[in-house]
């Protein structure tokens, strides 16, 4: 599926920066990108790093100058930015605005556009991101496949569940940090602990990817837990002391926040 010739971004924060860098990494996936001047530091750096980037202070000029429009605005100001835009029927729009419902976006846009929502993560800058897309859309999926991979959600429920699961990133790094703290408290320098743990966790994640979707993750857990061994002991302690339940409760609370 060919990508659009021109992609425009309204909102120039961390996600826009990551998407643009991923799309324009060599070999560049698109020939032209427009970005809004806000924020000035990010947009100026993108324009300095990539000759394909054009910065505009006029959001309407971005709407009219692109084939696909990406809304990447903070949810607190999204309505005030989107409502004044004049979009034609059939315009392809991708919203990466967090915690904002599809009906609200369509109301603010006020035109019969082709709207998809997506949850790009910072790793798209390295073309290593996995992005949830709703509703299924081949053109939107093609963009995010260039940036890593895309999971097309058939229902809003699926999309919301993946949005909740994406909130685990800080916990992942937090577990690594707490472990390096524990190692340091027992005499291992923190830098050595990190040098060991980061590749260990990366290898574990790669094993899950290579195993394929038909392999149950709990079966991988058992495979890495010799009966009566150390890995089994840690998992049983974690599970038995409420770790698994605490994780599920946290995800329930995130899902409630997303869907309210």
How would you characterize this protein structure?
The protein is of the alpha/beta class and 260 residues long. The protein has two domains: 6-154, NAD(P)-binding Rossmann-like Domain (Rossmann fold, 3-Layer(aba) Sandwich); 167-259, ProC C-terminal domain-like fold, CATH 1.10.3730. It has twelve helices and eight strands. The chain has an eight-stranded mixed β-sheet, with helices on both faces. Strand 1 (6-10), helix 1 and strand 2 (32-36) form a beta-alpha-beta unit. The longest helix has 22 residues, at 190-211. It is elongated. The chain starts with 5 loop residues before the first strand and ends with a helix. The relative contact order is 0.09. The mean pLDDT is 96.
Q: Report on the biggest sheet.
A: 8 strands, mixed
Report the order of strands and helices: EHEHEHEHEHEEHEHHHHHH
CATH class bucket of the largest domain: Alpha Beta
Radius of gyration (CA) equals 21 Å
| Low-pLDDT ranges | none
CATH architecture heading of the largest domain = 3-Layer(aba) Sandwich
Major beta sheet, strand line-up: 3-2-1-4-5-6-7-8
Q: Would you count the extended β strands for me?
A: 8
**What general form does the structure show?**
elongated
Query: What's the end-to-end separation, in Å?
Result: 36 Å
Percent of residues in β-strands: 15-25%
Number of domains: 2
Structural class: alpha/beta
* CATH homology superfamily name of the largest domain: NAD(P)-binding Rossmann-like Domain
User: Please, what is the average pLDDT?
Assistant: 96
Provide a count of the helices. 12
| CATH domain topology of the largest domain | Rossmann fold
The percent range for helix content is 40-55%
């Amino acid at each position: 599926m060919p990508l659009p010739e021109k992609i425009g971004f309204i909102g120039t924060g961390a996600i826009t920066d990551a998407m643009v860098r991923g799309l324009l990494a060599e070999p560049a996936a698109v020939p032209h990108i427009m970005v809004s001047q806000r924020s000035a530091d990010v947009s100026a750096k993108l324009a300095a790093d990539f000759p394909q980037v054009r910065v505009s202070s006029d959001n309407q000029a971005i709407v009219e100058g692109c084939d696909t429009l990406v809304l990447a605005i903070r949810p607190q100001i999204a309505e005030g930015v989107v409502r004044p835009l004049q979009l034609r029927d059939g315009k392809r729009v991708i919203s990466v605005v967090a915690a904002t419902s599809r009906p609200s976006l369509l109301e603010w846009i006020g035109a019969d556009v082709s709207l998809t929502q997506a949850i790009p993560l910072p790793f798209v800058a390295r073309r290593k991101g996995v992005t949830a897309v709703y509703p299924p859309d081949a053109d939107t999926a093609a963009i995010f496949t260039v940036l890593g991979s895309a999971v097309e959600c058939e229902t809003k429920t699926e999309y919301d569940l993946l949005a909740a699961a994406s909130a685990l990133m800080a916990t992942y790094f937090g577990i690594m940090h707490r472990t390096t703290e524990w190692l340091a408290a027992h005499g291992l320098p923190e830098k050595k602990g990190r040098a060991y743990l980061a590749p260990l966790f990366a290898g574990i994640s790669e094993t899950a990817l290579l195993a394929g979707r038909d392999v149950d993750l709990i079966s991988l857990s058992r495979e890495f837990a010799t009966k009566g061994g150390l890995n089994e002991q840690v998992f049983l302690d974690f599970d038995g002391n409420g770790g698994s339940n605490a994780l599920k409760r946290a995800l329930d609370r995130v899902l409630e926040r997303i869907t309210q």
